[in-house]
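Recall that a protein's primary structure is simply its ordered list of amino acids. Everything else, from secondary elements to tertiary packing, is in principle encoded there. The following example makes that idea concrete.
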Amino acid sequence: MSETASGGHAPRCVALVGPYATGKTTLLEALLYTSGTIDRQGSVEDETSVGDTAPEARERGMSVEVDAAAASYLDDPWHVLDCPGSVEFMQDAYNALMVADAAVVVCDPDPERAATVGPLLKFLDDRAIPHVLFLNKMDSGTASLRDMLAAYQNVSDRPLVLREVPYGDGERVTGFIDLVSERAYDMEETTRGDLVRIPEDVRQQEAEARQEMLEHLADHDDHLLEELLEDINPATDEIYDNLSRDFHEDLIVPVFFGSARNLQGIQRLWKALRHEAPEPAETATRQGLDPEGKGFLGRVFKTRYAGHAGKQSLVRVWRGTLTDSTTVDGGRVGGLFDVQGGRTKKRNKAGAGEVVAVNRLDEVPTGALISEGRGATDAAADDWPEPLPGVYALAGAPVEAGDDVKLTEALRKLCDEDPSLSTEQREEPHELIVWGQGDIHLQTVVQRLHDRFGLEVTTGRPHTPYRETLRKGASQHARHKKQTGGLECPLAAGSLDGERDSV
């Protein structure tokens, strides 16, 4: 596949996922900046990023919910979903992946952190979601390329296929060699990458990596295998076609490198996504939906309560057109909005592939398929992820007397936003218990109760409702000693020695 503009793409959606502190929100900023969507690259530290705008996220310096942003790269429309990396907020990441056409798994160049990516890669492979690995922070990594690749291959069921190899001066990465076109790009002076000659000291490494990439592709293409056996150099377009097909079918995991903070490797990532990410219709088909069916069809993948606006649902449109006048599941849409991080902008309609915020879908839960009229009619092979079970509990009570009903309603809304939260009312010892994924998860709930709903709550560890009862009868033998008087008694000095048995 060539890199000439093809045009005509429907809006596609890519999710940025990966462990905590790998730089996903920084990558979102880099993608938006290099596409021309924003004029200045913001940062999480300065609280100027498009993502992580929630007060809880900025206070902790970490994503606590999925953020959506729209972009346009070479006239192709995109929606980027920045997902939390902490295991305590993984429910949002799983839900976002279910509506994405492809995922970018952002990783640390430290091989010792590779194990943290394992559960996420398994989730992707179990559902055949196409994904690439982006090894971020390569400007600070010290491990060898071989060690990094081996560590991540140990936790991936699919073969990792290098799309490029980095080179540098021994201390930092200064450029990349594309293994398909066999072109080298210098990243020292420009973030776009200037075309340069392949350095002589990396030619052998590049040749070996390219051969390994072709062998992985030949595992799924007999014609390519024959060419390799006959020492025929495959055509560039043939290699691109194989990469795209195998990627769509989740047979391989392409690997890219870069530094989101320094904008290195971002253009290369954009181009790969542009040419190889599946179209929305293909993603809908993979999920058992009919993209050519009649009428509007969409999926709610995130719910949030936006102050006076009430309930707001993030929806990926699979087919048809959604408008302000559309009746969805028996209720009329209360407003349609573009989403750019924490900001929204009113719009009139949305078409297939787009991600929009929809107001007043009060009876529609996260994960629901929605269509015109009452209920989605598509017989989808629905494998929407089950809510994660609670593993950490916190007992809570309102500080102000009479706020019990208000607290219960606020918690209901928070559980609607995050299905991995749940509540339990224990009759003994009369406690309201909130279940979540960890301490930070539940402390975020407490902060939201205060900031959004004006509720002060006292919290503590749940009490164990111990109970005691007689289980069975018992018998015991004992001896009772008693002195009968102060004077010595002959009888008392006798055989009984003043002892009496008592049972």
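The first helix runs from residue 24 to 34. The CA atoms of residues 18 and 106 lie 5 Å apart.
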